[in-house]
Amino acid sequence: MGLVFQVDRTDAGGGRHGRLVLPHGVVETPVFMPVGTAASVKTVEQGVLEETGSDGVGAQIILANTYHLYLRPGHELIARMGGVHRFMSWERPMLTDSGGFQVFSLSSLRKVTPDGVEFRSHLDGSKHFFSPEHSMDVQIALGADVMMVFDECVEHPATYERTRDSMALTHAWAQRSKDHFETNKERVPWFEERGGKTQSLFGIVQGGMYADLRKESAERLVEMELPGYAIGGLAVGEPREVTREMIARTLEWLPKDKPRYVMGVGYPDEIEEYARMGVDMMDCVLPTRAGRHGLVFMREEAGGPVVRMNIKRKEYAEDARPIDESCGCMVCRRYSRAYLRHLFVSGEALGLTLNSVHNLAFYLDTMARVRGDLAG
Amino acid sequence: MGLVFQVDRTDAGGGRHGRLVLPHGVVETPVFMPVGTAASVKTVEQGVLEETGSDGVGAQIILANTYHLYLRPGHELIARMGGVHRFMSWERPMLTDSGGFQVFSLSSLRKVTPDGVEFRSHLDGSKHFFSPEHSMDVQIALGADVMMVFDECVEHPATYERTRDSMALTHAWAQRSKDHFETNKERVPWFEERGGKTQSLFGIVQGGMYADLRKESAERLVEMELPGYAIGGLAVGEPREVTREMIARTLEWLPKDKPRYVMGVGYPDEIEEYARMGVDMMDCVLPTRAGRHGLVFMREEAGGPVVRMNIKRKEYAEDARPIDESCGCMVCRRYSRAYLRHLFVSGEALGLTLNSVHNLAFYLDTMARVRGDLAG
C-alpha cells in the first residue's frame, strides 16, 4: 500500500480539504511542496524547514529532483545510504519528479526515440539515457513516497500535431512506467523497515494548451488506474488565463477521490486560486529562487493583494519594520527590512537564507489559510 | 560603568576561570568569540548561533568589524537603527575591533601620518580617513559592549626600528583613543535605555616579535588604566612557537585583574593552549572560513588530537557517520559526512552553513571544556 487519500469536505467552488497518508507521514491538503532540488531546499536547513511558517508546523512534504540526484551523487549511492529521506535527514514525506522536465530543460543534445531520451549532462557533458524503466529504477532507488511517470515535456508554443504526438509518447511511457514500477516496487530501500509499505506512482496529464488533448490525456491516464494525477506542461510561458483554463478543464476529467497535483506553479495568488479550484498539491521553486534574487512576498495589509518587494531597494535602508507586519515567521519576528537589505547588498549568504525562509513561510501560511477556509 | 571582571580561580599554569559582566550580558571566560564581519557570522543565523555547541548555550559574545560596517551600511545608519545589536538582532554582548587591522590588510593606497590613515575602500576605491578619534566615533555609533583602541598594525617581518616606531604611534593613538572615548562615551545609542551603562575601551599591546618592545608596550598601556588589554599583531605568519612565546611574555606584564584578549587566533588546539596560559578572550574567522572551504575540525577520539577533515574527499562519499562521533552539535546529531560531502561537491549553500555551524560548535565546545577544567 502506497497511499490513502481522504477528502473531508468539498466546497461549492470545487476546492477540497483532505488528508494524504503516505509511508513517511500524513499530509493535510491542499499542500504546497518546497523544492529540494539536489536533496536540499536551497539555503534552508531541514530543521528550519520543519518549523517554517507562522504556525511552526513547517513543510509537510518536499520535492527532490530525480535528474539532479541521478547525476550527483547518483541514485545507487543514495539507495545504499537508505534512500533520499535518510540521506538528507528528512523524515517527512517526499516526492520525486521523473527527471523528464530537467532532461528537456537543462541537458543538451537531447535525442528522443520511442524507447527514451539520450542526453548530455549539464554538469560535465557526459552522455546518458533515460527511459521510463530507467526513471522508475532511479526513483525507486531514491525512495520518495510519491514518484512520477516519465513524460516528454513539449516546448511552448507547440503545434496541435506536435503536442498530440508528444502526448501519445507520454501515454506509452506512462504505461511502461507503471508496468516497471509494479514489478519493482518492493525494491524501495525502506520497504522492509516500513512493514511492506511502498511508493506511489502518479500519472501526468499532458496535452499542451489544447483542451481536447488534455481531455484525451486525462481519460487515457485514468484508465491506467494510478493512485494520483498531476497536470504537467503548464506555466511554461502561456498567459495565466490559459493556465487556469487548462487546470479547470482537466480537473473535470480527473477522479474526485484521488489527489490532483499541478506541477511547477506558481505565484502565491496562483497557488491560492488553484487550491480553491480543487488542486490538492503544488510545488514551485519560486519562493527560494525569488528569495535568492532579493525578492520577498508580503501583503501591505492582512488579506490584501500579494506584493513583490525588492529588498535591495534604497527605501528599505533604514526601515525597522519586518518584511510583512502580519507575518509570524521566524524572519519577520526577528529581522528588519534594513538588516535584510544590508545582508543582500553586502553579499552576505545569510540574506539569501532569510529571504528564502520568509518566502517559504509565506507560501505555507497561504496554504494553511486556504485549508482553514476549505475545512469549513 | 562598562564592565566588571571577576576571576574565580587561577590554576598553576596561569589559566583562569572568570566572568565578564557587560551591558548586554555575562560572559564566562575564557571565551571564544565568533566573528560577524559585516554584522553576520557568515552563513549562520543568529538563532542558530544562540544554540550552537553541544551544551546548546551558543556564542556568548560575537565580534563585528568596524571597517566593514563603516563602509557598508555606515555607522551613522546603524546608530540611527539603535546600534549594531538591534540592527542585527543580537542581544548578547558584542565587541568591535578598531578598523586598524582591516585598513592595513584590505584597503589600498594607505598613507599613514601621525594624525591617522588615509586609505581607499576595497569595495569601490573611494577615499577615507581614519584617526583614533574617528575610529572611536564609529565604534561608539556601532555600540558594541567592548571597543578597541585604534592601532597601527606593522607588517611581518618588520625590523626592530620599524616595529618600535610603529609601536610609539600606536601608543600615542591609544591615548588619543582613550581621551576621545572618555568625553564621548555617553553617546552610545543605548546609553539611556541601559540606565547609563556604556562601552568599555580595551588597549592593544603591539611590539611585533620583540619581547622588550612587547614589555614596553604593555607597561605604557597599563599606565593608561584601560579596563582590558589585547595582544595584537600576532598570527601574522610567524612560527607558532614565537606566537606562544610573545603571548606568554606579554601576559606576565598585564594586570591579573583585567581581561586579556589575544586577537585573531587560531586553530582549536591553539585557542585551548592560550586559554590554559591565562588568555581570557580570543576571536578568529577560522571556524567559518574553513567551513566555507570544506574544512571541518574533529577528533578521532574524545580527547585526541584535532584533525582537519576535508569534507569533499571521495572517501566520505558513503560515510554515514557524523563529522565527529563525540560531537553533540546540531550538525553531528543530524547529518552524515556523505550528505555534507554531497552538499559541498554540489555547490549547495547549505553545506557551507552546516560546516560553519559544526566548526563553531567545535570551538565553543573546546572552550567550554577548558572552562570546566579551569573552574576546578
TrEMBL record, chains A, B:
Top-level taxon of the source organism: Bacteria
Entry keywords, A to Z: Glycosyltransferase, Metal-binding, Queuosine biosynthesis, Transferase, tRNA processing, Zinc
Catalysed reactions, semicolon-separated: 7-aminomethyl-7-carbaguanine + guanosine(34) in tRNA = 7-aminomethyl-7-carbaguanosine(34) in tRNA + guanine
GO cellular component: cytosol
Presence of the UniProt keyword Glycoprotein in the record: no
Domain named tRNA-guanine(15) transglycosylase-like: residues: 14-372
Active site, UniProt feature: D97, D283
GO-annotated biological processes: tRNA queuosine(34) biosynthetic process
Region feature RNA binding, mapped onto this chain: 264-270, 288-292
UniProt-listed Enzyme Commission number(s): 2.4.2.29
EC class (word): transferase
Residues annotated as binding substrate: D97, S98, G99, G100, F101, D151, Q206, G233
Family statement: Belongs to the queuine tRNA-ribosyltransferase family.
Subunit structure: Homodimer. Within each dimer, one monomer is responsible for RNA recognition and catalysis, while the other monomer binds to the replacement base PreQ1.
Record's function text: Catalyzes the base-exchange of a guanine (G) residue with the queuine precursor 7-aminomethyl-7-deazaguanine (PreQ1) at position 34 (anticodon wobble position) in tRNAs with GU(N) anticodons (tRNA-Asp, -Asn, -His and -Tyr). Catalysis occurs through a double-displacement mechanism. The nucleophile active site attacks the C1' of nucleotide 34 to detach the guanine base from the RNA, forming a covalent enzyme-RNA intermediate. The proton acceptor active site deprotonates the incoming PreQ1, allowing a nucleophilic attack on the C1' of the ribose to form the product.
Protein name: Queuine tRNA-ribosyltransferase
Organism, as annotated: Edaphobacter dinghuensis
Highest classification ranks of the organism: Bacteria, Pseudomonadati, Acidobacteriota, Terriglobia, Terriglobales
Gene (name only): tgt-2
